[in-house]
Each structure stands twice: as structure tokens, then as C-alpha cells.
Specification:
The complex is a heterodimer. By secondary structure, chain A is of the alpha/beta class. Helix content of chain A is 26%, strand content 22%. Chain B has a single domain, classed as Rossmann fold (3-Layer(aba) Sandwich). Bound molecules: thiamine diphosphate and magnesium ion (MG).
Chain lengths: 463, 328
Amino acid sequence: MSIDIQMPALSPTMEEGTLTKWLVKEGDAVKSGDMLAEIETDKATMEVEAIDEGVVGKILVAEGSQNVAVGTVILQLLEDGEGVDDLSAPSETPAPEATPEATHEPATVSSTPEPAQSTASVQSVPVEMDVPAGTAMVETSVRDALRDAMAEEMRRDDRVFIMGEEVAEYQGAYKVTRELLQEFGAKRVIDTPITEHGFAGIGVGAAMGGLRPIVEFMTWNFAMQAIDHIINSAAKTLYMSGGQMRCPIVFRGPNGAASRVGAQHSHDYSSWYANVPGLKVVAPYDAADAKGLLKSAIRDPNPIVFLEHEMMYGEIMDVPDMDDYLVPIGKALVRRVGSDVTITAHSRMVGRALEAADILAGEGISAEVIDLRTIRPLDSDTIIKSVKKTNRIVCAEEGWGQSGIGAEIAARVMEQAFDYLDAPPARVFQKDVPLPYAGNLEALSLPNAQDVVVAAKGVCYVK
Amino acid sequence: MATPGKTSKKELLHLYREMLLIRRFEEKAGQLYGMGLIAGFCHLYIGQEAVVTGVNAAIKDGDQMITSYRDHGHMLALGMTARGVMAELTGRSGGYSRGKGGSMHMFSVEKNFYGGHGIVAAQVPIGAGLGLANKYLDNGKISTVFFGDGAANQGQVYEALNMAQLWKLPTLFIIENNQYAMGTSIARSTAQKDLYKRGLSFGVEGVQVDGMDVLAVRDATKKAAAHARAGKGPMILEMMTYRYRGHSMSDPAKYRTREEVSEMREDHDPIDMAKNRLLKEKWADLDALKAIDKDIKAIVADAVEFAKTSPEPAPAELYTDVLLELDA
Ligand SMILES: Cc1ncc(C[n+]2csc(CCOP(=O)(O)OP(=O)(O)O)c2C)c(N)n1
Ligand SMILES: [Mg+2]
């Protein structure tokens, strides 16, 4: 029986690709490890390798074919002693067995994730925005918005430079620093060895020495190696020096859970850094904020922790076409106006909160959605003002609940608007366990729009 | 070329089989990833099989191993079942961590495998800590800690080396130098590329070993293990090796040439090397080798079947294993 070789997926979400090139022809003998073909997706070109020995019987998909579905039989391999007559009818194309989390993006370090399905409820134009009327909008991925922010600031100020693992030649593990090396050269786009504690400290020293470093952590999980410098060296120095010594530095990278990468690679640090005086902590949701907040962060004279979200990198959203689009740090944004309940969220969770607001609207509940944007300093005023209007609040976040952002917000609401509350504040957060790998358990762990809906109905006393 | 290592028909056939099992297992894992059955990160060991196989042949039952996320080969070498490893890759209840760990995080108390670590170099001091426990308990065991050329630049490696030498811990620091850390070649990450010399300032001896030659790995490890077991402290073994595949599944590996990879495959493949020796010594003919391959394919196919059919963990598993009860 011949062996069917199928179009492979490069990631759990890849559905089709282009067969760019055959590296073998019919009649060739191949052995395990030989390259058979090159395939291409929007992310990357990869080679398909033989894992069996045999002779190339029949090539079923021509070179250059586009949109070849994953699982399509592309080649039949004849085993020892078989002839063309032994070719069996290609097996039915099985739908790739989807993992339960197949709607998630792949979480592969080297890839450029495909845009996640964008839900209709993702509002990319905020309700309040300091953009002159008539400004054109450019569709930009969050990834490119971050890149543009860095490029613009590097053009503007030659003290700004970026360093981190794979930021230069590899163009960024998640391609956020794409083409920066080409434009700014190796002096300003610096590949480091895998030495987070060391290069975070070097970044702090460079900032004290008069530069404006951007330190990229491949993910914030790895910044735990460096947290001593972020807190003890960067955050506390201004204070300890009686105001003399500055440390203008941006630590940035993807934070929180990606997709199926397990407990050590899926940690949300929002509340960890939010706990530290001397830091500013920023966590944008959409592409415009990613750009405007990162530009502000780079110009800020203080140490900034800038928390991105890997699953948002591929989202394409509107960014105002302006020479210098800045979003102020420390100001929350009301993304949807409502009257019955306030929902707060930051980073990717904002999308889920907006989705929840849509669902709630269908059930007659009008939710106001506040995108925190900055977690420290927290914009209490915007939250309190909203709660005084809605009298109810749900605080949603992706991280764990204990001592979390929601806990902080709930406390402030009770301190500052207790008499206005018609229900105790509710929180939505990740289950109180390390993030499991199994698809079904991971899905159970992370908060989704439905969890927000349930909490909102709860504070509205609606069943 | 060094003189070929001493071996026997029985031993070399065994080592060949072990390496082939890892190779075939990894090829299949790559395929399952392509079919969407494995998700997240999946780092294959293809090309590096001789390292763990040679080390395992030189240590004793009960000695410990600990490594990074590139861990499938280590587990198979230690005799953890292909079924259990594969089912963890697919996130099923039959996996070594009952689906909760994934490719990067598996453990076996029974087989003395201490993981499966996702944070680059974190396993290094932990491995030295296993050495401390061995010395403290005076149990005669040694610990072996595997890490990459990229990991070798992390500060905690040097903190661990210093303490290991100061306290004469029975630990082997085994650097799997496959020349790349993701897309960064060793020349771009360090000015001092002889990693076996990295312990000298602490007084830790090191040797460089052809990590594609399973017998060379075995011999070097035997010496180092004897050194550690005799109470003389740790050693560094720098295994010169190569990974054929990308760093993880979707690394297009544009940082090296196709020729570089095929040169390693054609001329330095650890499995081919063992195969040629078997044929040359007439310890096996092609038919015998084919039979081994068939055997191994059957083991892997069985593991795949198990990994596909083993159920997902029960939802209640989400909450188990966070903390132990006091009387546990
Ligand atoms: C502390 C930390 N930083 C970065 C990463 C991301 N990362 C995972 S593997 C890797 C490369 C490691 O290379 P090496 O140590 O040579 O091991 P190899 O992958 O070659 O086996 C990097 C940068 C990580 N997991 N942990
Ligand atoms: Mg390496």
C-alpha cells in the first residue's frame, strides 16, 4: 500500500497554504529526513520532510497551487518493491482534527500569528479619542502599530534603542521588531544572548547613563529572571536618590496566556507590577492604543512596564493616520457607553468585555465598558464616575483573582462610591490554578465573554 | 578522526535501537503537530539522539536526569513509555502529566526524570540541587543536567557551577551545543565559544565531546560520572551536536543554509554512524536493521494510537494537584 503524504499544518490554526515548490519528482527515491516540498503560509515558508522511505509515486498537487487545504494528499509514496500499480486511491481528506482551542492563534515563538477571527463586536474606534475630526484611519495590525511606534520614536530621538533576544536579525520572535535592524542598524537594534537578568540590568544602567532603552522580553514569563532589576534597580532609584537619578526605560513584550503553551509560558503579570510604586504599567487593547501608548511610554521619564498580548498581535484595527499620535498614560477609555452596569478590563479582555456587552444588550442590559489602558496609575476617576451612574461593576481580567486588578478596583469603588452601589462588585478572572496544557482544561481556565455576561447579570440581579 | 570506540554487538545494537526510537518518535510528533493533534510549543530532538543515548549508557539506574523543554528524547532514553510521552503531547489523560503539562513539562519519579523545564537554564541549579540531595543522603547517585548553548549564557548557570564545585556536588553539567539558540548562532551570542571551559574559573573541569558519536558520548560520560561519584565534584561535558529541525515546529530556520543542515545529516548523522559500524563489523545485515526499524515503527504507531484515543482529562482535573493535603 502506498503512503499518502498530506499537506501539513504549521500551526493549529493554519487551514491552507501554497505549495511553492516540489523538491522531488516522480520516481525519486527518498528516505526519512529528505525534503519533499516547500510550503508557504502568510507567516513563513517551511519544508515538508519525508518520514518514511520509498519512491515518489505520484505528485497530486502541482507546484504553485494556492489554498491547498491542510490534510489534502499532496503526494503518494511507494514502499519497497511497489510499482505505480500499487497506488491506492488517495485517502479521503480528513478534516484536520481540530483541537478544542483551534480558534486560538498558534503560540509558536518564531511565527507571525495569523489574524485571529475578529468578532463583530470588536470596536476599533473608541468612544472618546483625541483625534482631530476627519483624520483618516489606516488598518494596522497591533504588531505593526507597536513597531511603528518604536520606529517613529527612534527617528525622533537617537538616544532610543532596542535590545532583547532575537530582536534584530530574526526580526523579533513575534516579528514586532520587523525591519528595525534594516533601518536603524546594529548599534540601535541589539540582539542579546539569553540573559534576561543581565540585559535588563544593562538596560537600567544605560538609562541611568543617559540613553532611552527599550528592553524587549521575548515574553514576560522570562522577565521573572529580571524582575529584580525592574523593581529594585529601575523602580526604586529615583526615590532612593532623593530625586536625582532617573531611569527612563521601557520594558515590553507579550504578557499572559497565549495558546496551549502550558503553565510556565502563560502567566499574566499585570497585578505583580501594578503593586510597585515607581513603575508605570501600561496594557493596551487595540492597535491605536498600542501605538499611542508605546510612543508615550518611550518619551516618559520613568520606568515603564508595557504589557502586550500575543493573541492580539495579529488583530487588524484602525490607527489614526497622524504624524505623532500619542495616547496619554494614566487615562482610561470608555469604549462603550451604557447605563446599567460598568465593566472594566484591560488588554485582550477588553474584547471579551465588548463581546459581553453586545450579548447583554440583546437581553436588555446596557453595559458601559471601560478599557483601563494603564494599570498604574489607575484612572480611578473614570471608573468611579461610571459606577456613580450605573451603580454596578464587574471587574474582568485574564490573570488570577487574588490580589488582582479586579480586587484593587473593587476596593477603590467601595472606598469611593460605596453609597452608590446597588450590588457588591463582581470579579471575573482566571481559575485559581496554573494554566493547564490540555485544550479542554485550558478553555475552562480562562475567562471568556460568557463569564462576563453571567457576572453582569448577577450584579443586575437578572437571571 | 578519533579511533572508533570500543563496543560489542549487543551494546551497539541496543544503542542503535534507542536512537532510532527517538528519531522515529520525533518524526511522528512533528507529523501529529502538522495534523493539529499537538499544539503550543513542540521542540524536536532530531539530530541530537546520540547525546542522551550515550549519557544514559554511561550512568547507573537511579541517577537523575533533568533538562529543558527539548525533552522527549531524554524521557524515551530513560525508559519512559512512548505511549505516555505521546499522550502528553496530545494533551490527554494518558500522558505523563495527565495532559496538564504538555511537550515541555513531563516528569517521572519512577524513572528519575525531573523535567521538562520551560524557562531557559532554570533546570541547571535545580540539577545541582539534585546533586546536593544525593550528597546529603549519601545515596551514591549522580545527577545529570542537560542544557543548551544558549542556556549556557544565563547567569544562574555560573552561580550553580560555583556552588557545585565549592560543595563537590555529584552533578554532570551536560551542554548540548547544537550551535543555535533559536535563531542566534553561538558566534553571535558569546565571545568565548569553548563552552567546556566555562567552569574553569570555578575549578570545574570540562571536556568537549563529539556529540554525534554515541560511543564518544558514552566514554566521556563514564569518566565524568566516575569523577563525580568519587566525590571529586562536578564536571562539564560539552557535547557538539546539531538539531536538524527548526527550533520549534514553526521556525522556518532562515538563519542557516540548507547545505549546512544536509552536510550534518549526510556526514555526521549519529544513527547512520552506528548503522555503518554495525554493518562493517557484520553485527547486523540490512535485513536485520530493517526488522529493527519495523519494530520501532510499531512501537511508535501504537503510541500514536494511544495518544489519539486516550480521553481528554476530566474537567475536574483542572483543580487537582495545586497543593497537597497535610496528610498526603
Ligand atoms: C528565560 C527564558 N528566556 C527565553 C526563552 C525563550 N526561548 C526558549 S528556547 C530558547 C533558545 C534556547 O537555546 P539553547 O539553550 O541553545 O537550547 P536549544 O533550544 O538549542 O536546545 C529561547 C530563547 C525562555 N524559554 N526562557
Ligand atoms: Mg542550542
